[in-house]
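Milestone M4 deliverable, item 7.
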Amino acid sequence: ARWQLSRVLVMSGQFEEAENLLAEGCQFMPIDNTCWLNYASFFENQNHHHKALDVLKQAVKKLPEDIHLQEQLINRLLMYNFPAEARQHAQELLDCYPDGAYCWHILADTLHRSPDYSDLKQIESLYRKALSLNSSLLPAAEGLVRLKVSQHRYQEAHDVLSNLPGECQDDAEALWLKALVFRQEGKHENAYSEVENILAKHPDYLRAW
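Output delivered:
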């Protein structure tokens, strides 16, 4: 309700009132990550990116084990060119969940997206660790596939997808990645066939249209 009311206030030009309303929500419900995310979004919509980051940092201090909040902060730190700080938060999250496959994926993805980090073997090992903990984790598989494609190691990219559990191999995202690999290696007919396969099995998968 506060988020909806704040949007009404913004539309009428009452920015300070909207900000106060969202700040109060974070004070009243500090363990509700939605309140913090809405507050950060308010600043982002005003192009106040540093204030949005400050809000998310406050949220993470209060909820350090909240994976979604940490991921949102990491994404914005990368977006606004603070890769070292993003890596720090990704490592801290992994320290909280050392057996969490998705947290290994987040660290791998953060390193992969950091323009000042170039240890591709380390990135690959992190993606593989994530998949060893959860072989069905498609975001980690996608990260590893895209890493292999960027190195023109197309067969290894196909192998990553072939090693997914059987129930995942017909997933729309897995089929899309297969088409992507074919396209990048210049096998356009194979890529087109995979896209047709996706549309036949998953007609609502928008990326294939």
